[in-house]
Amino acid sequence: MKESYLSRLSNISEFLSIIIIILGTIFLIGWAFNVPIFKSPNPFFSTIKSNAALCFVFIGISIWLLQTKRINKSNIMIAKILAVIIIIIGLLTLIEHLTDFNFGIDQILFTELPGALNTSSPNRLAFITAINLVLIGSAILVLDKNINVGWPLFQILIIIEGLMVFLTALGYAYNASNLYIVYHYTGASIYSVLTTGLIFFAVIFIRPDKGFIGILLDKYPGSALGRKLLPVLIIIPIMLGWLTLLGQENGLYDSNQGYAILVFSTAIAITTLLWISIISINKSEKHLERHYNVSHGMNEILRGTIVFKSEKDVVLKCLEVAKKITSSNYGFLGEIIGGRLTDLALIHPEMESDEAHELVVGMEIAGYWGRTIKEERSQIVNDPDSEPDKRGVPEGHSPINSFLGVPLKQGDQIIGMIGLANKEGGYNIEDQEAVEALSFVFVEAIMSFRARNELKETVAELKSSNEELRSFAFITSHDLQEPLRTIASYAQLIKRRYKGQLDKDADEFIDFMVGGASRMKDMIQGLLDYSRVGTRGEEFKEFDAIKSLNNALLSLQSSIEENNAKITYDKLPNIVADENQISRVFQNLIGNAIKFKKHDEPPKIHISAEKRYNEYVFSVRDNSIGIEKEYIDQIFEVFKRLHTIDQYEGAGIGLAIVKRIIKRHNGHVWVESEYGKGSTFYFTIPEAHKSLK
Length: 693
Ligand code: ADP
Description:
Elements: H1 2-32, H2 50-65, H3 73-99, H4 127-142, H5 151-173, H6 190-204, H7 211-216, H8 221-249, H9 255-307, H10 311-326, E1 330-337, E2 340-347, H11 353-359, H12 367-374, E3 379-381, E4 403-410, E5 413-421, H13 429-498, H14 504-535, E6 541-544, H15 545-555, H16 557-563, E7 566-569, E8 574-577, H17 579-595, E9 604-612, E10 615-622, H18 654-664, E11 669-674, E12 678-686
Parallel strand pairs: 7-9
Antiparallel strand pairs: 1-2, 1-5, 3-4, 4-5, 6-8, 9-10, 10-12, 11-12
Helix pairs in contact: 1-2, 1-6, 2-3, 2-4, 2-6, 3-4, 4-5, 4-6, 5-6, 8-9, 9-10, 9-13, 10-13, 13-14, 14-18, 15-17, 17-18
Residues 588, 592-593, 596, 622, 624-627, 635, 640-643, 650-656, 679 line the site of adenosine-5'-diphosphate (ADP).
């Protein structure tokens, strides 16, 4: 809306600038060809002076050039040169008036005979007009594209100019010549009063988005009120004054009575305007208050969903908010279940909520309130007595004398309704809109409360089934060891005792059996270790990570020597963790780095750690065979291996254990690798760690 005002006012400014140029030109033509009507309306009014006419043309051009859409460096330059000329003419004329000195500028364009009406020296422009020219010229001088710097000055100059024009115009309107003729200096002609008036509007509308015009155009209620009141406030006193004067001149009353009538009528007019303002401001304040209450209510409800223990508390909070905003006595919130309305809560002034609840269990969806659901839209019923169908209002319920029903929707589907009743004076559309706005929050609050509860239950269930699984894995792997051990040792026994005594095939089969049993032993041991990570972990304590690393290197010593592995490491930080488990992590990672070495290169492994924000990032870098990109995500899974047992031995559970241990420490583990070049395994340990289970 403001935009349309802005462009309209800018257009007015430009249009006025053209009118001003035309008027100035007409006045000059009046002088050039001596056309009396172009100089003053009739001989009883003083003439507009030729210098004033020239200045008006200059002012019109400047305002035209300074329109925002047209502004550029050269236009500003021309406008400012013209402004300086205007100021000089104004100032020189003022000096002439005040000192009686004659610069000879008055008659420079055209000459006027001595003795012209209200003219102190022939063709000398009016004292007031000269001041106005200085003011307007200065205002134009400080105006640029954005007028950020000169803006306050610009406003002051142009307001003073406007007030002076207003006063001189009143002088003409009320026939008070002292207002347009100052002392014995040349009086302002009616033409120049009119033109300077137009100039005032052309100049203040030139940048309508700024300053007091900008304030007046704002979207807020104060500005809207101002836009309506300002013209009325200016016009009413003028009209009243003028009417009083008219009555006085026609002899209806004398001047004392005239004053009394003027004061009386002005007081009435201003009081009426004040009253309109009070009502209008109150209306918008009430509107605002309602919005505030609605959003405050929403806030309370959403906060409630986090704090409240039961769903009923959430629903009661919703009802309480709706009841308060609409000043209702009864509140009811129900959900459609099996074609009937089951209340989630009911607020009844004379009953406890449990007792009230009994009233409305499984209500039939009928009567005027049932329409809320059937017609899927809000209902206001302020005279329920006239409703033919009163079914549905439960027996024992106090009489209802006004009712507001709003459907509760989840997506497109109606899931229930909120009913409010017995607001004194009945409900209005604003009540309805407020409850409609709230209804979405009600649904959201109730549903998210339910969802959160369901989630809690699911998490609890998951936890217990996880627990069961863990103990299952532990028990089975533990118990499987025993028969396996028997199979393995008897297979060994057969191998030892009967090798070479049976045929070649039998020897091979026995080898397979022994190998399979031993692999299975490794796998079961791995599973056991894996399931123990959570259950057999130790308390976290602070220690130097180098201790864990040294432990790991110690247990890998023979493999390191065998493979001629070169292991280097940086200074490692103190961490809060399970020392044995961190050793295990290093052992698995370094063990793999050695195991998956290239055939033609001895393993080179470097361990380091750095602090990133609130955690330590450890890395184990190797020059191994590397991992193909597509398998990178799989290697941390249980029994996932990328090679056959003939190529590299192992149970495929080492990295799964690493992942589980790091997870227990609230950290992350990942790998970056380039196939054929090597891999770097990373894991993080949070800086200060509270003990976890
Ligand atoms: P295992 O080492 O017993 O096979 P892991 O869980 O420790 O089982 O590793 C899974 C797989 O990840 C390995 O089979 C191997 O293919 C790959 N891998 C692990 N560490 C490295 C490494 N440092 N360089 C190359 N590949 C690796």
